[in-house]
Amino acid sequence: MPTTRRYLMCAPRYFEVAYSINPWMDPSKPVNHDLVMRQWQTLRDTYVELGHKVEQIDPQPGLPDMVFSANSATVIDGRVLGARFRAEQRAAEADHYRRWFNENGYHNVVMPTCINEAEGDFAWTGRYLLAGTGFRTDPGAHAEAQEVLGVPVVSLHLTDPRYYHLDTALFVLNEDEPNIAYYPEAFSEGSRRVLRRLFPDAVIATAHDAETFGLNAVSDGRNVILPTESTGLAAQLTDRGYEPIFVDISELKKSGGGPKCCTMEIRG
Q1: pLDDT category, 160, cuts 50, 70, 90?
Q2: Does residue 1 sit within a domain?
Q3: I need a labelling partner for 40 at 20 to 30 A (CA). Which of 46, 152, 172, 258 fits?
Q4: Total structural domains in the chain?
Q5: Residues 20-39 pLDDT 10s
């Protein structure tokens, strides 16, 4: 069953691929600014039409990746753990998001000492916080997240640089009866064993699903927002009783982002 969610998003007013900090980014490929704004607006409108609440933070010039709000905080039961970016090009984003939370009634925001890129590498299942490491988030950030957020953390190791954040290789389908979809080849063998043990009924994505950013999806427990190309994954989800909803993210993909990257969930 779907549950109403609260999301924080940032319009891609200043979005461009001005540098390369992941394998998907190529500054020689121009961004269509009108198209990326329309694509982002469609994503936002989709959430609203589904009954979710969408908050917005003002984009800032000089921060082209600020649109990827999921990377800037993790919020569980009203506790906020901010982000500390590995790439200096994105470092200033963290303080803008910290101020947004302070100005919107969250006065106990903790800024991390270890590098963590928030929901890029942290996925709340309703029972555990799955925490990725290997490319961006430091392993020490996992213990810090457990201490600040007060939830059990399960560490997972990413091994494929194309899937540099956990949210490019895994997403949570349902928090009430926790289940996930993921691409096993993005993880170390030990992490695969952990995922099989915790989620024996998980949806297993194909290489095509992963390459089309199908795992950078957003689920409300029934409706699953995913890229238009991820038809194989959508078929599996339909078979499980979920309702896939396609969105076009062609411009956002130029920076290695998709629906989830643009969507921070505020829990409590």
Answers
A1: very high
A2: no
A3: 172
A4: 1
A5: 999 999 999 999 999 999 99
Distance CA 197, CA 108 (A): 35
Residue 172: domain span: 6-265
| pLDDT digit string, tens, across residues 98-145 | 999 999 999 889 999 999 999 999 999 999 999 999 999 999 999 999
CB atoms within 10 A of CB 72: 28
Query: Is a pLDDT exceeding 90 seen at residue 202?
Result: yes
pLDDT, residue 108, reads 86
Kindly state whether residue 163 falls inside one of the protein's structural domains.
yes
- Mark residue 63 as left, alpha or beta (left: phi above 0; alpha: psi -120 to 50; beta: remaining): beta
Q: Write the Ramachandran bin of 78: left for phi over 0, alpha for psi from -120 to 50, otherwise beta.
A: left
CA 181 – CA 128 distance, rounded (Å)? 15
CA proximity to 36, closest of 63, 60, 14:
14
For strand 170-174 and strand 179-182, is the pairing parallel, antiparallel, or unpaired? antiparallel
| Separation between Cα atoms, residue 155 and residue 133, nearest integer Å | 7
Task: Tell me the catalytic residues.
Answer: 165, 261
